[in-house]
Amino acid sequence: MSEFLQNCTREDFLALLMEYASNADMGMTDEAMDYIIKKVGHEAYKKADAHYKEHTDFEVLQDIIKLQSKFFPGENGRSELHIYLMEFFYFDGEFTTMELVFDQMLERLFVS
User: Fold this and answer.
1) Tens of pLDDT along 78-100?
2) Measured between alpha carbons, how far is 103 from 112 in angstroms, rounded to an integer?
3) Do the Cβ atoms of 45 and 33 come closer than 8 Å?
4) In angstroms, rounded to a whole number, what is the distance separating the alpha carbons of residues 78 and 75?
5) SS3 state of residue 110
6) What's this model's pTM, rounded to 2 decimal places?
7) Domain interval for residue 71
8) What is the Cα–Cα distance from 84 to 97, expressed in whole angstroms?
9) Quick check: 66 and 75 in contact, CB under 8 A?
10) CB 107 within 8 A of CB 30
11) What is the tally of structural domains in the chain?
Protein backbone atom coordinates (compact mmCIF):
# COMPACT_ATOMS: atom_id res chain seq x y z
CA MET A 1 0.00 0.00 0.00
CA SER A 2 1.35 3.41 -0.94
CA GLU A 3 2.16 6.12 1.57
CA PHE A 4 -0.62 8.23 0.09
CA LEU A 5 -3.22 5.53 0.75
CA GLN A 6 -1.94 4.87 4.27
CA ASN A 7 -1.94 8.54 5.30
CA CYS A 8 -4.79 9.82 3.16
CA THR A 9 -7.14 12.36 4.71
CA ARG A 10 -10.63 13.19 3.53
CA GLU A 11 -9.25 16.36 1.90
CA ASP A 12 -6.52 14.37 0.13
CA PHE A 13 -9.16 11.96 -1.18
CA LEU A 14 -11.37 14.78 -2.44
CA ALA A 15 -8.40 16.46 -4.12
CA LEU A 16 -7.49 13.19 -5.85
CA LEU A 17 -11.07 12.62 -6.96
CA MET A 18 -11.43 16.13 -8.36
CA GLU A 19 -8.06 15.93 -10.13
CA TYR A 20 -9.05 12.59 -11.66
CA ALA A 21 -12.42 14.01 -12.71
CA SER A 22 -10.80 17.09 -14.20
CA ASN A 23 -8.35 15.03 -16.22
CA ALA A 24 -11.11 12.69 -17.34
CA ASP A 25 -12.76 15.78 -18.82
CA MET A 26 -9.91 16.70 -21.16
CA GLY A 27 -7.32 17.91 -18.69
CA MET A 28 -6.70 20.01 -15.61
CA THR A 29 -7.25 23.71 -16.11
CA ASP A 30 -5.87 26.49 -13.93
CA GLU A 31 -9.44 27.25 -12.89
CA ALA A 32 -10.04 23.65 -11.81
CA MET A 33 -6.77 23.59 -9.88
CA ASP A 34 -7.70 26.85 -8.12
CA TYR A 35 -11.13 25.43 -7.26
CA ILE A 36 -9.60 22.27 -5.79
CA ILE A 37 -7.13 24.25 -3.71
CA LYS A 38 -9.93 26.53 -2.48
CA LYS A 39 -12.01 23.51 -1.43
CA VAL A 40 -9.38 21.28 0.21
CA GLY A 41 -6.24 23.35 0.66
CA HIS A 42 -2.90 23.55 -1.08
CA GLU A 43 -1.25 20.75 0.90
CA ALA A 44 -3.99 18.23 0.07
CA TYR A 45 -3.84 19.25 -3.58
CA LYS A 46 -0.05 18.82 -3.69
CA LYS A 47 -0.24 15.33 -2.15
CA ALA A 48 -3.03 14.24 -4.47
CA ASP A 49 -1.31 15.72 -7.52
CA ALA A 50 1.93 13.88 -6.73
CA HIS A 51 0.03 10.60 -6.28
CA TYR A 52 -1.90 11.17 -9.50
CA LYS A 53 1.25 11.83 -11.49
CA GLU A 54 3.00 8.72 -10.14
CA HIS A 55 0.24 6.31 -11.18
CA THR A 56 -1.79 5.34 -14.21
CA ASP A 57 -5.40 6.45 -14.54
CA PHE A 58 -6.50 2.89 -13.82
CA GLU A 59 -4.44 2.75 -10.61
CA VAL A 60 -5.79 6.10 -9.46
CA LEU A 61 -9.35 4.98 -10.13
CA GLN A 62 -8.74 1.83 -8.07
CA ASP A 63 -7.40 3.99 -5.24
CA ILE A 64 -10.44 6.28 -5.42
CA ILE A 65 -12.76 3.28 -5.19
CA LYS A 66 -10.84 1.92 -2.18
CA LEU A 67 -10.92 5.23 -0.35
CA GLN A 68 -14.54 6.13 -1.09
CA SER A 69 -15.98 3.76 1.50
CA LYS A 70 -13.50 5.03 4.13
CA PHE A 71 -14.45 8.68 3.80
CA PHE A 72 -17.98 8.50 2.41
CA PRO A 73 -19.49 5.24 3.74
CA GLY A 74 -23.00 4.04 3.12
CA GLU A 75 -25.77 5.47 1.04
CA ASN A 76 -25.57 8.84 2.82
CA GLY A 77 -21.85 9.01 2.05
CA ARG A 78 -22.45 8.23 -1.61
CA SER A 79 -25.10 10.95 -1.77
CA GLU A 80 -22.80 13.47 -0.09
CA LEU A 81 -19.98 12.60 -2.47
CA HIS A 82 -22.31 12.92 -5.48
CA ILE A 83 -23.31 16.41 -4.35
CA TYR A 84 -19.66 17.33 -3.90
CA LEU A 85 -18.85 16.15 -7.42
CA MET A 86 -21.81 18.01 -8.91
CA GLU A 87 -20.56 21.23 -7.29
CA PHE A 88 -17.15 20.59 -8.83
CA PHE A 89 -18.57 19.84 -12.26
CA TYR A 90 -20.71 22.98 -12.21
CA PHE A 91 -18.08 25.41 -10.86
CA ASP A 92 -17.36 26.60 -14.41
CA GLY A 93 -21.04 27.07 -15.24
CA GLU A 94 -21.44 24.01 -17.47
CA PHE A 95 -21.94 20.28 -17.16
CA THR A 96 -20.29 18.47 -20.06
CA THR A 97 -21.13 15.09 -21.53
CA MET A 98 -17.80 13.76 -20.26
CA GLU A 99 -18.67 14.90 -16.74
CA LEU A 100 -22.05 13.19 -16.99
CA VAL A 101 -20.44 9.93 -18.12
CA PHE A 102 -17.83 10.18 -15.37
CA ASP A 103 -20.50 10.78 -12.74
CA GLN A 104 -22.55 7.81 -13.94
CA MET A 105 -19.48 5.57 -13.95
CA LEU A 106 -18.63 6.48 -10.36
CA GLU A 107 -22.21 5.89 -9.25
CA ARG A 108 -21.88 2.33 -10.50
CA LEU A 109 -18.42 1.77 -9.00
CA PHE A 110 -18.89 3.24 -5.53
CA VAL A 111 -20.13 0.93 -2.82
CA SER A 112 -22.80 1.78 -0.28
Assistant:
1) 889 989 988 988 888 887 778 88
2) 16
3) yes
4) 5
5) coil
6) 0.89
7) 3-109
8) 18
9) no
10) no
11) 1
